[in-house]
């Protein structure tokens, strides 16, 4: 006899149980909302997007306190995380390290930039092993009463302002109804596709793709520098305890080291994704072969995840034209994505979760709710477009490590000024609502073009840095571009 279908009416449906969907369901279930979460995959599963920032951690802490969820607190800093949850793999992230490389050339010690984010290990940011963290958050949401369906196949429909998700998960048939749905499916954009919301990806300037995986036996940068007798005493933190960036002629490589010494590594390449390319393994080998430093780092490396081997993307950038409307909203990573550069994904998702939770918990009229959703949508899209500008300028500065590094200072000025001002986290992400900052970014892009057109030589770089130093002054809390820092920034660390 066939089992009866589970038939439920809830307040909110969430499609996707990445950390964003699970966190939102946890907050809202804690507040007494009836929430159902549906995911096509089953936890634990490999996911990319692992490097947190002070803004991400501060927002998570604020959510834990505001919604009385003490179980989230250990995940807000490296020290408590390791003591309370040694079973959840993470890595120490004291800041951002950058090393410039030219093809087939030895590494030059001048091409280094280190920007501190945390002042000690205890309060430090972390890299999240997403398979562990996402599964854990999914379980915590269940503890707080969220209804969950993983490994689900389902059909989405809408009738009379009610969303209906009907399908099957783990052999159980279900039929769920709600007046509101949140799309947390990331690139899949299930609700956006259902509603036929137009894309505006064509307006994005960044054009990059990536190939990545998790490895063991990757030689640390510190050891590579020691072998070359390059002095590391100027570094404000251990250069591997960071989001490590190897800046190349047409893109960059990220390396995030976890506590078990495995390393998440990937190339992000700033070329149109439709350029013909061989398979992922071929690309990986070709790229390592061009850069002696990287070739040596990976000489004994072996891929450990995902099970299917290296992952390769098409163009990473995407942007919707609407991120919310009557009865629906999309989380940031569903509304759009730019690039792993600057590690904006986790923090931006936290911002989106915080705003949506506030909106969905309010008891105002339906017109007020609609207005709030409209603001949510336009703010989110403005933020993604600013991230696009902050990323695109880095690629445009290549192959000059100095121009790349100087352009990064716009991001660091925006983010550190938010991190270091009390209440800074409630404004738009990275000052995306501040006309003065947007104007500075736009004008700086013109200056960057002039420096590139002038041949990217030392004089052009000097002029560009001098100009940037002046224009970022209102947001510059960490001595960014101060000559005496010489690329080593300790004062950018968030205050403890
Ligand atoms: C190559 C790369 C590197 C990145 N590196 C960083 C970084 O270093 N730092 C950082 O902050 N951010 C990074 N990001 C961004 C980061 O991955 C995202 O911000 C983050 O994953 C957002 O989490 P999420 O839960 O909203 O979405 P996701 O992690 O995308 O989760 C989506 C969930 O939806 C489920 N799903 C998919 N389709 C469906 C469907 N049709 N129905 C139901 N469920 C579905 C999936 O199984 C998954 O569980 C990176 C992104 C990429 C592509």
Automatic annotation (TrEMBL):
Transmembrane among keywords: yes
Keyword Oxidoreductase: yes
Highest taxon in the source lineage: Bacteria
Gene Ontology MF term list: oxidoreductase activity
Keywords, alphabetical: Membrane, Oxidoreductase, Transmembrane, Transmembrane helix
Transmembrane regions listed in the UniProt entry: 12-29
Classification via InterPro entries: FAD/NAD-bd_sf (IPR036188), Flavin-dep_Halogenase_NPB (IPR050816)
Protein name: Tryptophan halogenase
Annotated organism of origin: Rosistilla ulvae
């Amino acid at each position: 006899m066939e089992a009866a279908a589970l038939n439920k009416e809830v307040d909110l449906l969430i499609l996707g149980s990445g950390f964003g969907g699970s966190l939102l369901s946890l907050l809202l279930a804690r507040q007494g909302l009836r929430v159902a979460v549906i995911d096509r995959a089953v936890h634990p599963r490999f996911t990319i997007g692992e490097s947190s920032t002070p803004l991400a951690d501060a927002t998570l802490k604020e959510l834990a306190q505001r919604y009385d969820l003490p179980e989230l607190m250990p995940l807000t800093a490296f020290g408590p995380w390791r003591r309370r949850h040694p079973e959840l793999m993470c890595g120490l992230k004291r800041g951002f390290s950058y090393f410039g490389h030219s093809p087939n050339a030895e590494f030059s010690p001048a091409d280094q930039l280190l920007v501190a984010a945390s002042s000690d290990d205890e309060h430090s940011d972390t890299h999240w092993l997403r398979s562990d963290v996402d599964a854990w958050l999914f379980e915590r949401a269940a503890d707080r009463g969220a209804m969950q369906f993983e490994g689900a196949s389902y059909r989405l429909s809408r009738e009379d302002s009610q969303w209906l998700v009907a399908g099957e998960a783990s052999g159980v048939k279900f039929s769920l109804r709600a007046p509101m749905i949140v799309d947390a499916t990331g690139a899949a954009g299930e609700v956006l596709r259902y509603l036929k919301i137009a894309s505006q990806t064509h307006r994005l300037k960044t054009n990059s793709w990536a190939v990545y995986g998790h490895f063991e036996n990757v030689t640390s940068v510190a050891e590579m520098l020691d072998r070359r007798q390059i002095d590391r005493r100027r570094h404000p933190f251990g250069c591997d305890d960071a989001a490590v960036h190897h800046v190349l002629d047409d893109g960059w490589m990220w390396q995030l080291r976890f506590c078990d010494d495995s390393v998440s590594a990937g190339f992000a390449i700033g070329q149109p994704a439709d350029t013909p390319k061989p398979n992922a393994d071929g690309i990986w080998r070709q790229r390592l072969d061009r850069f002696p430093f990287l070739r040596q780092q990976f000489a004994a490396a072996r891929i450990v995840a995902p099970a299917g081997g290296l992952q390769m993307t098409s163009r990473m950038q995407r942007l919707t034209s609407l991120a919310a409307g009557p009865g629906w909203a999309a989380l940031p990573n569903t509304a759009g994505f730019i690039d792993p550069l600057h590690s904006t994904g986790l923090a931006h998702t936290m911002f989106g979760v915080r705003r949506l939770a506030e909106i969905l918990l309010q008891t105002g009229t339906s017109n007020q709710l609609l207005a709030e959703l409209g603001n949510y949508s336009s703010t989110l899209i403005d933020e993604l477009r600013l991230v696009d500008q902050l990323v695109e300028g880095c690629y445009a500065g290549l192959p000059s490590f100095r121009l790349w590094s100087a352009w990064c200072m716009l991001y660091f000025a925006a983010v550190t000024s938010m991190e270091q001002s009390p209440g800074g986290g409630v404004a738009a992400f990275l000052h995306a609502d501040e006309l003065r900052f947007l104007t500075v970014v736009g004008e700086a892009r013109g200056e960057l073009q002039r420096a590139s057109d002038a041949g990217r030589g030392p004089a052009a770089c000097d002029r560009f840095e001098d100009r940037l130093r002046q224009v970022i002054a209102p947001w510059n809390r960490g001595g960014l571009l101060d000559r005496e820092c010489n690329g080593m920034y300790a004062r950018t660390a968030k205050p403890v």
